[in-house]
């Protein structure tokens, strides 16, 4: 099986030792991704932009995402992200899960992980 790895050069990729995305077995597995911003919606948009770049590099896109997991330290901040998520996935909503948990740094309000068809 061919495996290709995609890096976006983010600081955690090298420090922790992981790839932003891995293409294998007909799927694109995008690692949990955070984004910069002053609030959860800005961070959500920034994380989705990074994910979108990884999907593009893998020859995929948001219309091919089959699974998404959202991680938030405060579940009450999830609802403000819904319009951005509906806009991103449009007519192709994936299966989804939201988990309330601590993130790597308290400044982050959301982390997003996706699996897409290659």
TrEMBL record:
Keywords: Hydrolase. It is an enzyme of class 3 (hydrolase). InterPro entries: RutC-like_sf, YjgF/YER057c/UK114. Its EC number is 3.5.4.-. Gene3D superfamilies: RutC-like. The keyword Disulfide bond does not apply. The keyword Hydrolase applies. Pfam families: Ribonuc_L-PSP. Signal peptide: none annotated. GO terms for molecular function: hydrolase activity. This is Enamine/imine deaminase. It comes from Palleronia marisminoris.
